[in-house]
Amino acid sequence: MVTDEDKVFKALADTSRRQLLDRLRRKNGQTLQELCEGHDMSRQAVTKHLNLLEEANLVATTKRGREKLHFLNPVPINEIYMRWIGKFEQGRVQALHNLKQALQEKDQ
Amino acid sequence: MSAKTEFVYVTYISATPQKVWDAITTPEFTSQYWGKNMVSNWKPGSKWDMASTDGLNHVNMTGEVLESRAPSRLVISWVSPENLGNAGETSRVTFEIEAMGDVVRLNVIHDQLNAGSEMAKGISGGWPRVLSGLKSFLETGKGLDIKSCSTSKAA
Fold first, then answer.
1. Which residues of B touch A88 (CB under 8 A)?
2. Which domain holds residue A98?
3. How far apart are CA B102 and CA B70, in angstroms?
4. Lowest-pLDDT range, A89-93, B32-36, B84-88, B128-132?
Protein backbone atom coordinates (compact mmCIF):
# COMPACT_ATOMS: atom_id res chain seq x y z
CA MET A 1 0.00 0.00 0.00
CA VAL A 2 1.32 3.43 -0.93
CA THR A 3 0.72 5.79 1.96
CA ASP A 4 0.56 9.56 1.74
CA GLU A 5 3.94 9.68 3.42
CA ASP A 6 5.44 7.37 0.79
CA LYS A 7 4.21 9.80 -1.85
CA VAL A 8 5.88 12.72 -0.06
CA PHE A 9 9.24 10.98 0.19
CA LYS A 10 9.05 9.76 -3.40
CA ALA A 11 8.18 13.26 -4.61
CA LEU A 12 11.09 14.74 -2.66
CA ALA A 13 13.57 12.13 -3.89
CA ASP A 14 14.26 14.02 -7.11
CA THR A 15 16.48 17.05 -7.71
CA SER A 16 14.23 18.63 -10.34
CA ARG A 17 11.18 18.41 -8.12
CA ARG A 18 13.06 19.86 -5.16
CA GLN A 19 14.18 22.71 -7.41
CA LEU A 20 10.58 23.38 -8.41
CA LEU A 21 9.68 23.61 -4.71
CA ASP A 22 12.65 25.97 -4.19
CA ARG A 23 11.34 28.19 -6.95
CA LEU A 24 7.89 28.28 -5.39
CA ARG A 25 9.49 29.06 -2.04
CA ARG A 26 11.14 32.11 -3.61
CA LYS A 27 8.01 33.14 -5.50
CA ASN A 28 4.73 31.53 -4.56
CA GLY A 29 1.76 31.21 -6.92
CA GLN A 30 3.48 30.71 -10.28
CA THR A 31 1.94 29.50 -13.52
CA LEU A 32 3.25 26.51 -15.48
CA GLN A 33 4.67 28.98 -17.99
CA GLU A 34 6.66 30.84 -15.30
CA LEU A 35 7.93 27.56 -13.84
CA CYS A 36 9.15 26.45 -17.26
CA GLU A 37 11.14 29.62 -17.87
CA GLY A 38 14.87 29.38 -17.31
CA HIS A 39 14.60 25.63 -16.98
CA ASP A 40 16.22 23.17 -19.35
CA MET A 41 13.35 20.77 -18.73
CA SER A 42 10.60 20.36 -21.30
CA ARG A 43 7.14 21.66 -20.55
CA GLN A 44 5.92 18.07 -20.42
CA ALA A 45 8.56 17.13 -17.87
CA VAL A 46 7.71 20.11 -15.67
CA THR A 47 3.99 19.23 -15.91
CA LYS A 48 4.75 15.65 -14.91
CA HIS A 49 6.82 16.76 -11.93
CA LEU A 50 4.15 19.23 -10.83
CA ASN A 51 1.47 16.53 -11.02
CA LEU A 52 3.55 14.27 -8.81
CA LEU A 53 4.15 17.10 -6.34
CA GLU A 54 0.44 17.92 -6.31
CA GLU A 55 -0.46 14.28 -5.75
CA ALA A 56 1.88 14.24 -2.76
CA ASN A 57 0.15 17.43 -1.56
CA LEU A 58 3.43 19.35 -1.64
CA VAL A 59 2.02 21.71 -4.25
CA ALA A 60 -1.45 23.25 -3.99
CA THR A 61 -3.10 24.86 -6.99
CA THR A 62 -5.80 27.44 -7.55
CA LYS A 63 -7.48 28.62 -10.72
CA ARG A 64 -7.16 32.29 -11.51
CA GLY A 65 -9.21 32.97 -14.61
CA ARG A 66 -7.74 30.69 -17.24
CA GLU A 67 -4.50 30.29 -15.35
CA LYS A 68 -3.56 27.65 -12.84
CA LEU A 69 -1.32 28.94 -10.05
CA HIS A 70 1.02 26.67 -8.10
CA PHE A 71 1.77 27.15 -4.41
CA LEU A 72 4.27 25.48 -2.12
CA ASN A 73 2.33 23.47 0.47
CA PRO A 74 4.74 22.55 3.28
CA VAL A 75 2.07 21.02 5.55
CA PRO A 76 3.11 17.37 4.83
CA ILE A 77 6.75 18.29 5.46
CA ASN A 78 5.76 19.80 8.78
CA GLU A 79 4.02 16.52 9.68
CA ILE A 80 7.27 14.64 9.01
CA TYR A 81 9.20 17.22 11.02
CA MET A 82 6.83 16.93 13.98
CA ARG A 83 7.08 13.15 13.88
CA TRP A 84 10.79 13.06 14.57
CA ILE A 85 11.56 16.40 16.11
CA GLY A 86 9.78 17.08 19.38
CA LYS A 87 9.28 20.36 21.13
CA PHE A 88 12.39 19.90 23.27
CA GLU A 89 14.78 19.18 20.42
CA GLN A 90 13.47 22.06 18.30
CA GLY A 91 15.65 24.70 19.92
CA ARG A 92 18.83 22.64 19.72
CA VAL A 93 18.22 21.57 16.10
CA GLN A 94 17.52 25.19 15.17
CA ALA A 95 20.71 26.34 16.92
CA LEU A 96 22.80 23.78 15.00
CA HIS A 97 21.13 24.81 11.74
CA ASN A 98 21.89 28.49 12.44
CA LEU A 99 25.51 27.65 13.32
CA LYS A 100 25.93 25.69 10.10
CA GLN A 101 24.43 28.53 8.04
CA ALA A 102 26.66 31.13 9.73
CA LEU A 103 29.80 29.02 9.15
CA GLN A 104 28.92 28.36 5.52
CA GLU A 105 28.32 32.06 4.88
CA LYS A 106 31.79 32.82 6.26
CA ASP A 107 33.37 30.28 3.91
CA GLN A 108 31.86 31.87 0.83
CA MET B 1 0.43 50.27 -3.24
CA SER B 2 2.96 47.61 -2.32
CA ALA B 3 3.00 44.21 -3.99
CA LYS B 4 0.68 41.61 -2.50
CA THR B 5 1.37 37.95 -1.99
CA GLU B 6 -0.67 34.93 -1.05
CA PHE B 7 -0.25 31.45 0.37
CA VAL B 8 -2.35 28.35 -0.20
CA TYR B 9 -2.22 25.44 2.21
CA VAL B 10 -3.98 22.09 1.88
CA THR B 11 -4.37 19.25 4.31
CA TYR B 12 -6.48 16.09 4.24
CA ILE B 13 -8.05 15.10 7.55
CA SER B 14 -9.95 11.94 8.53
CA ALA B 15 -12.95 13.71 10.03
CA THR B 16 -16.30 15.22 9.07
CA PRO B 17 -16.63 18.81 7.80
CA GLN B 18 -18.52 19.71 10.98
CA LYS B 19 -15.68 18.42 13.18
CA VAL B 20 -13.14 20.43 11.19
CA TRP B 21 -15.34 23.52 11.40
CA ASP B 22 -15.74 23.10 15.17
CA ALA B 23 -12.01 22.56 15.60
CA ILE B 24 -11.32 25.91 13.90
CA THR B 25 -14.06 27.95 15.56
CA THR B 26 -14.10 26.69 19.16
CA PRO B 27 -11.55 28.07 21.66
CA GLU B 28 -11.64 24.84 23.72
CA PHE B 29 -10.29 23.06 20.63
CA THR B 30 -8.02 25.71 19.10
CA SER B 31 -6.21 26.12 22.43
CA GLN B 32 -5.19 22.46 22.22
CA TYR B 33 -3.44 22.45 18.84
CA TRP B 34 -3.05 26.15 17.93
CA GLY B 35 -2.06 27.33 21.37
CA LYS B 36 -4.51 30.24 20.96
CA ASN B 37 -8.17 30.87 21.67
CA MET B 38 -10.02 31.71 18.45
CA VAL B 39 -12.97 33.71 19.76
CA SER B 40 -16.03 34.94 17.87
CA ASN B 41 -19.69 34.15 17.30
CA TRP B 42 -18.54 33.59 13.67
CA LYS B 43 -21.44 35.55 12.19
CA PRO B 44 -20.77 37.78 9.15
CA GLY B 45 -19.89 41.28 10.31
CA SER B 46 -18.79 40.11 13.77
CA LYS B 47 -15.33 40.63 15.19
CA TRP B 48 -13.01 37.70 15.86
CA ASP B 49 -9.95 37.59 18.12
CA MET B 50 -6.97 35.32 18.46
CA ALA B 51 -6.26 35.46 22.18
CA SER B 52 -3.61 33.99 24.46
CA THR B 53 -4.52 30.95 26.52
CA ASP B 54 -2.72 32.07 29.68
CA GLY B 55 -5.87 33.68 31.11
CA LEU B 56 -4.67 37.20 30.24
CA ASN B 57 -6.60 37.14 26.93
CA HIS B 58 -3.88 39.07 25.17
CA VAL B 59 -5.12 39.56 21.59
CA ASN B 60 -2.36 39.20 19.00
CA MET B 61 -4.52 38.97 15.88
CA THR B 62 -8.00 40.18 15.12
CA GLY B 63 -10.39 40.96 12.29
CA GLU B 64 -13.90 40.67 10.98
CA VAL B 65 -15.94 37.68 9.86
CA LEU B 66 -16.54 38.37 6.17
CA GLU B 67 -18.35 35.20 5.18
CA SER B 68 -19.54 32.29 7.26
CA ARG B 69 -21.15 29.18 5.90
CA ALA B 70 -20.86 26.35 8.42
CA PRO B 71 -19.42 23.81 7.95
CA SER B 72 -17.90 24.54 4.54
CA ARG B 73 -16.62 28.10 4.19
CA LEU B 74 -15.27 30.79 6.50
CA VAL B 75 -13.67 34.03 5.33
CA ILE B 76 -12.12 36.44 7.84
CA SER B 77 -10.04 39.57 7.62
CA TRP B 78 -6.72 39.31 9.46
CA VAL B 79 -4.88 42.20 11.08
CA SER B 80 -2.70 42.79 14.11
CA PRO B 81 -4.55 44.86 16.76
CA GLU B 82 -2.22 47.88 16.36
CA ASN B 83 -3.11 48.06 12.65
CA LEU B 84 -6.86 47.65 13.10
CA GLY B 85 -8.65 49.87 10.57
CA ASN B 86 -5.59 50.11 8.34
CA ALA B 87 -6.75 48.52 5.08
CA GLY B 88 -3.19 48.34 3.69
CA GLU B 89 -2.10 46.13 6.59
CA THR B 90 -5.22 43.94 6.56
CA SER B 91 -5.07 40.56 4.87
CA ARG B 92 -7.67 37.85 4.38
CA VAL B 93 -7.95 34.20 5.32
CA THR B 94 -10.34 31.76 3.63
CA PHE B 95 -11.04 28.32 5.06
CA GLU B 96 -12.64 25.90 2.59
CA ILE B 97 -13.82 22.61 4.06
CA GLU B 98 -14.83 19.97 1.56
CA ALA B 99 -15.82 16.34 2.18
CA MET B 100 -14.06 13.89 -0.15
CA GLY B 101 -15.22 10.38 0.66
CA ASP B 102 -14.23 9.66 4.26
CA VAL B 103 -11.72 12.49 4.47
CA VAL B 104 -12.04 16.24 4.47
CA ARG B 105 -9.94 18.48 2.31
CA LEU B 106 -9.15 21.70 4.15
CA ASN B 107 -7.83 24.60 2.07
CA VAL B 108 -6.49 27.65 3.83
CA ILE B 109 -5.86 30.61 1.56
CA HIS B 110 -4.13 33.60 3.12
CA ASP B 111 -4.08 36.45 0.60
CA GLN B 112 -3.87 40.25 0.35
CA LEU B 113 -0.62 40.08 2.32
CA ASN B 114 2.13 42.63 1.74
CA ALA B 115 4.98 40.83 -0.02
CA GLY B 116 8.09 40.53 2.12
CA SER B 117 6.34 41.86 5.25
CA GLU B 118 6.93 40.46 8.73
CA MET B 119 3.32 39.29 8.65
CA ALA B 120 3.92 37.31 5.43
CA LYS B 121 7.05 35.74 6.91
CA GLY B 122 5.32 34.94 10.18
CA ILE B 123 2.27 33.28 8.71
CA SER B 124 4.27 31.21 6.22
CA GLY B 125 5.89 29.50 9.21
CA GLY B 126 2.71 29.52 11.27
CA TRP B 127 0.07 27.92 9.05
CA PRO B 128 1.94 24.65 8.30
CA ARG B 129 2.42 24.18 12.05
CA VAL B 130 -1.22 25.02 12.87
CA LEU B 131 -2.60 22.78 10.10
CA SER B 132 -0.50 19.75 10.95
CA GLY B 133 -1.49 20.35 14.57
CA LEU B 134 -5.16 20.47 13.58
CA LYS B 135 -4.85 17.23 11.58
CA SER B 136 -3.12 15.47 14.46
CA PHE B 137 -5.67 16.83 16.96
CA LEU B 138 -8.65 15.54 14.96
CA GLU B 139 -7.12 12.20 13.99
CA THR B 140 -5.41 11.26 17.23
CA GLY B 141 -6.92 13.60 19.81
CA LYS B 142 -3.49 15.04 20.46
CA GLY B 143 -2.49 18.53 19.42
CA LEU B 144 1.18 17.78 18.83
CA ASP B 145 3.57 19.75 21.00
CA ILE B 146 1.31 22.37 22.53
CA LYS B 147 0.39 20.21 25.51
CA SER B 148 3.88 18.96 26.23
CA CYS B 149 5.02 22.56 26.09
CA SER B 150 2.57 23.75 28.72
CA THR B 151 3.21 20.67 30.87
CA SER B 152 6.92 21.39 30.89
CA LYS B 153 6.25 24.93 32.08
CA ALA B 154 4.03 23.64 34.87
CA ALA B 155 6.63 21.09 35.92
1. 148, 152
2. 77-108
3. 18
4. A89-93
Specify whether the backbone of B89 is left (phi greater than 0), alpha (psi in -120 to 50) or beta.
alpha
Identify the CATH homologous superfamily for domain B4-154: START domain (3.30.530.20)
Domain definitions of chain B by residue range:
4-154
pLDDT greater at residue A2 or residue A12: A12
Q: Is there a contact between B10 and A29 if contact means CB atoms under 8 Å apart?
A: no
Contact (Cβ atoms closer than 8 angstroms) between residue A82 and residue B145: yes
Confidence of residue B72 (pLDDT cuts 50, 70, 90): very high
For the complex shown, is ipTM > 0.95? no
**Cβ-defined contact of A29 to B6 (cutoff 8 Å):** yes
Note the pLDDT of residue B86: 94
Same domain for A87 and A56, yes or no, is: no
By C-alpha distance, the chain B residue nearest A86 is B145
Residue type for position B84: L
For residue A62, the domain's CATH number is 1.10.10.10
Task: Say how many C-beta atoms besides its own lie within 10 A of residue B36's C-beta.
Answer: 20
Nearest to B33 by CA among B128, B120, B152: B128
